[in-house]
Amino acid sequence: MTDVNSAKHTRRPHHWRRDLVELAALFTAVAVADAIANTVAHAPRGPVLLVASAVALAATAGFHTWWARRHSHAPPGGTGTRSDTGAAAPPGAAAPEPGHGGTSLWRVRTTVRDEPGSLAELCTALARHRVDILTLQTHPLSDGTVDEFLLRAPAALPPAELTREIAAAGGSGTWVERADAHDLVDTPTRVLNLATRTALDAAELPLALRQLLGRCTIHSLPARTLTGQPLADPVPEEGVLEETVLRLRDPSGGSITVERPYLPFTPTEFARARALVELDARLGPRVPGSRDVLTLPEGNEITVRRAGSTDLAAAREMHDRCSTRTLSLRYHGPVGDADRYLDHLLSPRYGRTLAARTASGRLVALGHLLWDGDETEVALLVEDDWQRRGIGAELLRRLVALAGEAGCDSVYAVTQAANTGMVAAMRGLGLPLDYQIEEGTLVITARLDPAPVRPRPAQQPAER
Question: Least buried of 100, 112, 361, 378, by fewest C-beta within 10 Å?
Fold first, then answer.
């Protein structure tokens, strides 16, 4: 929140009468000083008193200068200083002093009293520390108001000191988190961007909710289990807000639960989240139609594209062509239940699926990127006759690229030590890997680079 008034609008006019008054005061001061000097000089200890008076006057002038600079309500000249954004800073914010090491961006949320002057008191406290308020959102409550700020503060100002100043100005329940340049986008623009992403791809809804609500855990639960039993109590159409938990009705009949234990949700955030879910429900199932054609080392062409619930019949046919060993390595359970997982895996609500088809349209491989709360899982299934040809490696690289674009820090794969193809595919990513073995199950976690992993042509041995 910066003051956009130009300095030319705050410059005071110059008057000749003030010059005459100042000149008269100067002559009066000289005459009085001359009289005092003559009186003191003829006294017994006149020179000593004169020197002492000069020292006292110099000390008084120095103290006055220090006090004026420290407690002045405006920078010299009476104009606002320029902030890093090019706008004028508030009058209470002094210009950054050289040598303070730049600035830092912070997202701050605090609860203030719903009464006149409470926000002004908080802004004044921030201005004393040369903190610039870039954006401000208000979330009305029944007994107060939650104010959410994006602040640019001196780098030397620690978050603990920032919290103490806010508390002294009347803020309570303060939460501080470091921000970055992406937070500089205003809230309406950010919400519209998230709505656009959700409209184009149903799998974007969990990611959009996470970006809308900050650090939170999202669980999508189906209405029924694999055996057809009800999984949870149905969520009312209007949803449920329970402080740190949001429950929304999934368009597919299940529920979406959002948890943020460190910070309660506000009614405003609840309304925004519900609007995104309603948008998804109105648009219905949708999957982007883009596809890539790859040429395998032996010359066969494979088409890779996003898959959805419309590919369910083709996926079941691929299951019928896969061996029992291939299905057991993929699903880690009874092979007879493999078909039951497909409804879940192909639903965009739980992640993204890539399908590989031959030139004749036959589905020969599936790769899944699954949202698992705060974590992200990758899984592969390649038909027996098409293994060891690089299809699985290509699907895995594309899934990791999608995870990187979604802002994931890592992905993990659950497999068995005997599944050497999946182990080799994870190693082929060229990313830092962590291995963990529990009761014969191998969990491989890949930590993603800041830049997304880009797909490359299938040129290496394939994996299962």
Answer: 361
DSSP tag of 224: B
Q: Which top CATH class is 103-183?
A: alpha beta
Structure token digits, residue 241: 């807000």
What CATH number labels 291-447? 3.40.630.30
Q: What is the pLDDT of residues 347-365, one digit of tens each?
A: 887 889 999 999 888 999 9
> Distance (Å, rounded) from C-alpha 160 to C-alpha 186?
26
Q: Structure tokens of 355?
A: 């399908």
Q: What is the DSSP letter of 361?
A: -
The domain ranges of the chain are 103-183, 187-283, 291-447
Report yes or no: 224 and 231 within 8 Å, Cβ to Cβ. Answer: yes
Higher pLDDT, 225 or 164: 164
- Indicate the pLDDT class of residue 321, thresholds 50, 70 and 90: very high
Which runs of E-coded beta strand occur in 238-374? 240-242, 245-249, 255-259, 291-295, 301-307, 351-357, 363-372
β-strand partners of 263: none
Task: Return d(Cα 191, Cα 178) in angstroms, integer.
Answer: 20
Using a cut of 0.90, tell me whether the model's pTM lies above it.
no
Q: Which residues contact 198 (CB under 8 A, 6 or more apart)?
A: 204, 205, 208, 276, 279, 280
| Cα–Cα separations (whole angstroms), residue 294 to 157, 390, 392 | 53, 10, 13
184, containing H or E segment = none
- The whole-number pLDDT of residue 64 equals 53
| Residue 256, strand partner residues | 220, 248
CA proximity to 165, closest of 122, 108, 109, 116: 122
14-20-26 Cα angle (round to 5): 115
DSSP β-ladder status, 103-112 and 172-178: antiparallel
**Taking all residues of the chain, what is their mean pLDDT, rounded to a whole number?**
77
Output the pLDDT for position 229.
66
d(CA 378, CA 400): 8
How many Å apart are CA 100 and CA 365, to the nearest integer?
57
Where do the H-state alpha helices sit in 89-142? Answer: 118-128
Which has the higher per-residue pLDDT, 48 or 341? 341
DSSP-derived secondary structure for 183-218:
GGS-HHHHHHHHHHHHHH-GGGHHHHHHHHH-S-EE
Tokens (6 digits) for 373: 């709360």
Distance separating alpha carbons of residues 216 and 259, to the nearest angstrom: 6
pLDDT at position 16 over 70:
no
Give the dihedral sign, CA 190/192/195/197.
Answer: negative
